[in-house]
Specification:
The complex is a heterodimer. Helix content of chain A is about 0%, strand content about 45%. Chain A has no helices and eleven strands. In chain A, strands 2, 4, 5, 6, 9, 10 and 11 form a seven-stranded mixed sheet that branches. In chain A, strands 1-3-8-7 form a four-stranded antiparallel sheet, with no helix packed on it. Chain A is globular, with a radius of gyration of 13 Å. Chain A starts with a strand and ends with a strand. The relative contact order of chain A is 0.33. In chain B, strands 2, 4, 5, 9, 10 and 11 form a six-stranded mixed sheet that branches. The chains are: A mainly beta, B mainly beta. The interface between A and B is medium-sized, with 28 and 25 residues.
């Protein structure tokens, strides 16, 4: 059972470059999320999608965009990377967008912007 | 807005000793509370969740947490620490605001000393 697959696992990127982090799930979950994890700040939500074809902004959306063309894929794009976007990015999914849904996480993509 | 406070970013215990990780929450409505665990270089995975049923919640790997409304707490405990419990633990609270908004604490890193 793969669950959530993220790629790349690690990337070093020059400032100003465009980067897309890929996320694919095989659980047929409706809801998907992108978080960034930074030391001392925990996890913060960047963007979410309750179902295919819809997306929304989370807590820290600036500089990021997402799309949800189908149920399985939820890519995160940095249009022009900046050093403050250096972080570990986690994609997550949930069977429901309700309160009690368990989040399932990928193993993360570590991004360094120089 | 809901929030979570984890007391102690680092906790050290001896192998076989009691594990106690503290979490206090703030919520204007009955809360839905979670504990997640993150092992090195992995994503988060669910330990247990409180969804307004029993106040004592049992999770995986021998962990449990007790919901105390009067103290607005949801502390995580395990009677006897094992080396494999060394990880980072995140308390989280969930609310629905058009999507499932999960607010994470900053995490507590548990070190188990042999």
């Amino acid at each position: 059972i793969a669950g959530i697959t993220q790629a790349p696992t690690s990337q070093i990127l020059a400032a100003g470059r465009r980067m897309t982090l890929r996320c694919t799930q095989d659980m047929r979950h409706n809801a998907m999320y992108w978080y960034r994890q930074d030391l001392g700040l925990g996890l913060r939500l960047i963007h979410y999608s309750n179902t295919a074809g819809t997306t929304g902004k989370g807590e820290v959306p600036d500089g990021y965009s997402v799309s949800r063309a189908n149920t399985d894929d939820f890519p995160l794009t940095l249009a022009s990377a900046v050093p403050s976007q250096t972080s570990v990015y986690f994609c997550a999914s949930s069977a429901t967008s309700g309160n009690t849904g368990e989040l399932f996480f990928g193993e993360g993509s570590r991004l360094t912007v120089l | 807005a809901q929030s979570v406070t984890q007391l102690g970013s680092h906790v050290s215990v001896s192998e076989g000793a009691l594990v106690l990780l503290r979490c206090n929450y703030s919520s204007s409505v009955p809360p839905y509370l979670f504990w997640y665990v993150q092992y090195p270089n992995q994503g988060l995975q669910l330990l247990l969740k409180y969804t307004s049923a029993a106040t004592l919640v049992k999770g995986i790997n021998g962990f449990e947490a007790e919901f105390k409304k009067s103290e607005t707490s949801f502390h995580l405990t395990k009677p006897s620490a094992h080396m494999s419990d060394a990880a980072e633990y995140f308390c989280a609270v969930s609310e629905v605001v058009g999507y499932q908004k999960v607010t994470f604490g900053i995490g507590t890193k548990l070190q188990v000393i042999p």
